[in-house]
Amino acid sequence: MLLSNLNLLATAPDGVARLRELILTLTVQGKLVPQDPADEPASELLKKIRSGKDRLISEGKIKRDKPLAEIAEGEKPFELPVGWEWVRLGATMEMFNGRAFKPTDWLASGLPIVRIQNLNKSAATFNYCDPATISEKNKIDSGSFLISWSGTPGTSFGAFIWQRGPAALNQHIFKCELLGNAFVPEFLELSINSQLNVLIGKAQGGVGLQHVTKGALESLVLVVPPLAEQSRIVTRVEELMRLCDALEAKARLEATQHEQLVRTLLSALTTSATPEALADNWHRVATHFDLLLDCPEAVDAVEQTILQLAVRGLLVPQDPQDEPASVLLQKIRLEKDRLILEGKVKRDKPLPPIAEGDKPFDLPQGWEWTQLVEVALRGPTNGLSPKPQELPTDVRCLSLSATTQGFFKPNCFKYVDVTSKAAEQFFLKTEDLLIQRGNSLDYVGIAAIYDCRDDAFIYPDLMMRLQLSRSVNTAFIHMALICAEGRSYFQRNATGTQGTMPKVNQATVAGAPIPFPPLAEQSRIVARVASLRALCADLRQRLTTARSQQTLLAEALVENV
Fold it and tell me: What is the extent of the structural domain holding 494?
């Protein structure tokens, strides 16, 4: 059942990780290899554990501990195969904590000190110590059985078999002496790690660093199969985990190849010099459409390609009868001059012309390269950042997440301690263009249109607002800012040293290069893009639904194994 549905399980979201979990579950339930009635039963192994502990006590090597509680029926989550037994972890081993090394103990060379990161990451660097200062109980070697009991849940806890030679053990890791030769160490490692969720549930501490007490570890309930069966299970698990490794490598390779295919074919579209070349390249893309659009991420790439084609003038045909963009820009300049004379707006600061490197493609006939401030009646102004309030107030200020995705989200705001009168000039109006002046490099300069039908919000200091001329189509200008070339402009011109937030200043925003078509063509482009993005949204939803169904089916198969 497991192998016959392997492909479905592996290709589901997080499928290989789920597959690894399933393998561990089957391991401890005795469902991975057949039982052999001739195997010595685990009850005999439990006797060896007890006699081994009694011997160490009589030799004075360990002290007699308080007896562990009997395993209650409620602690046995499933029926065991014939010949298996339940046991508490504390009955199978003695645990010795590592040494609490101080930085003053560290040396440039000597005996490696094993910390938690050295267990989880083979490339992690070592600290070193003087071996003469280390007691035997804190020394380990290849084959030592270790349990990490402190750190970050999900990444630090668990059992490990050390295989990297002599070393000293740091605190937060137990060195474990197994009793009675009752376990194949590799099986015990699998058994403990199959119950990490149980251990994490018992962890103490705050967010981040947590720890599992020795008592919680000792009380952990484990299965004990016959020793020969443990060996067979370990061999089978190693085979299956190698298969999981291969599936993950194959998935990474396929994802890389798919990304390269999408990038190559879509790049051919955006580099088309003419509508005729675009038609030829589109034919190639259409031939591979089923391969291209098989995941939501590919649809995202197609949507970005649509924007790039739109701002290059390749998405709709040009009409020679349209009034050229140069005439429209002259009208906007006259409109701004009139408003300046009337004292309604301020004159913008002069900007240098657009650099040739900021004109990444040739424009169709009738288009012009212009700067963002040239199509705005009011240039970029920074917002306000008053003190936030927990209780509702009269003024709501947007948070950066309101525009981070490139469109306006009205539910992302905070109430602030400022009067409506003091915030009057910062209230937004429909069709205002918002640009983030500070954020991570992925989002700095991201633009969104304020499309709320009332002036319900003010904007924060890390945003800028521009009010465009009514003689331009705001949606088209927005496309030019969020397409690949627009995003690249802001990322190239963001300032900030390493460790500080990247930011763009008002001059950078004002000077953003805009490929500017005739007004009638702007409207045609916006309408075409809207219809194509609606198709993308529908396709993305279908793929997301298909993924969810695949996940549910994979989960159902896992439950029935």
Answer: 342-517
